[in-house]
Amino acid sequence: MTIIRTIRKPIRTAFAALAIAAVPAAAIAVPALAEGTKTASSAATACPTGWGSLPEANSRYGTAPLVDVRTGRHTCFDRLVFDIAGKAPGYSARYVTNVYQDGSGQLVPLRGGAKLELVLRAPAYNDAGRSTYTPANRRELTNVTGYTTFRQVAYAGSFEGQTTVGLGVRARLPFRVFTLAGPGTHSRVVVDVAHSW
Fold it and tell me: The AMIN-like domain covers which part of the protein (predicted)?
């Protein structure tokens, strides 16, 4: 009986020491967050849910032209933004085997394991036929080096009131498309592609 009590006491002491030692480690593992920011666990739940890889479309046509194309990196997805000089047009976004130029039908080569064809139902020229969006390099609209999902953004032209852009991505990953008003009288068509399923 005395031997069992003697063994139990050092074991309890060892467990207590381990529990105390674990507290600072847990505190170090979770960085301090500024007031008003999300906690690590709530930030993780903000990542995409319910997105898919099937085509998305809005059939509304617009006359306001495309004026810029931008990209950005976020925690859980890469973002492509089309700036429109007026009301947001409709769009079509779908995974395809290849993307082709509007009008000529020439292949638009894209890097990546999958290709998204993005069609804006808006021109990249004004009523006088002058270009409102003239990329410096049609094969590299923005520099996506170092992006998690994006591999290349290429211009496929603007023809008969619609503009096509090819987006090369790492793999066939879930995406979403939506429109935003502003700034001012402008609007945006936004394409987000998730980093993973």
Answer: 65-195
The count of residues in the chain is: 197
The CATH number linked to 143 is 2.60.40.3500
Determine, yes or no, domain membership for 33: no
**Alpha-carbon span 39 to 179, nearest angstrom:** 28
**Residue 138: closest CA among 150, 123, 156:** 156
User: Assign residue 35 a region: left if phi > 0, alpha if psi is -120 to 50, beta otherwise?
Assistant: beta
pTM score, two decimals? Answer: 0.76
Residue 142 lies inside a defined structural domain of this protein: yes
Phi/psi of residue 14, nearest 5 degrees: -65, -45
Phi-psi map region of 129: left, alpha, beta (phi>0 left; psi -120 to 50 alpha): left
| Residue pair 123/161 in contact by the 8 Å Cβ criterion | yes
Domain around 185: 56-194
Give tens-digit pLDDT for 128-165. 999 999 999 999 999 999 999 999 999 999 999 999 99
pLDDT tens readout for residues 78-88: 999 999 999 99
Tokens found for residue 137: 């390099």
Identify whether the C-beta of residue 147 lies closer than 8 Å to the C-beta of residue 73. Answer: yes
DSSP 50-70: S-BSS-EEE-----SPEEEEE
